[in-house]
């Protein structure tokens, strides 16, 4: 016996009130984290050529952006500093400088908008002359354990400047445990760790590398530490390890091409899962909008809703302020 006409799935879709009542997933500004690109100087907004609508901001402008986040109900911002070539080196020692750009940005934001959470990236690519996330041996290997030591120092440097969430994006093994121990040892019991657990060696990071100034200098690729896009089960092992090592939350990156990974993690673990809708995804959406083949408002919100439906607590997205406004903030 066929269910139709007793069952008509269109019945609940007929009116706006009924659609409201039956909606399974919600999206609000509280689900967004806004990535920002600090740059040197004062009163500077330098457009990122590959990311229409996104600019690098000097520290004073970042403070304003943080206030904007607060007024839009966006709970947190994420910082990715553009380090000048002169401050990049083989050993990435600028990462440990207590007065480096990211530390000044953290302090300015905490000053201007203390109610906004500050997440900082931990990886050496922002400071290395070769653009890799770790230190390199003479034979060209990205050194795991020596890099982890640097990452602990980098994390402490950022925690001391007042950052709330340390987000290691380097994909070295064992770094969550080492960073957690470092933070505890220095009294930062309440500094969270959001682990980039399943970070793929992706083609979607191009515009970001342009924004932070590591694209031009990067030699080779990151396949010896970032994950193979063909792998899903391995992502679950990464997450299991990071939870065991002390991560408060985990992240999947990129976002839209990896919704299956988000869902698999959400089903397997009771840990908050975040996604990073990365620069290439932003550029792709903006290119479609510019070409007149995608409606900006509807397209942006539908893409963000997909992350919530897949099981995310929240999303890092360059569309955060636009999305918050579209939601009526
Ligand atoms: C690396 C890092 C990357 C991004 C954030 N941190 C990319 C990379 O591996 O080069 C990408 C973010 C984006 O594309 O928006 N530490």
Automatic annotation (TrEMBL):
One of its GO terms (biological process) is protoporphyrinogen IX biosynthetic process. Signal peptide: none annotated. Belongs to the ALAD family. CDD domains: ALAD_PBGS_aspartate_rich. It comes from Sandarakinorhabdus cyanobacteriorum. Homooctamer. The active site is at 199 (schiff-base intermediate with substrate), 253 (schiff-base intermediate with substrate). SMART domains: ALAD. This is Delta-aminolevulinic acid dehydratase.
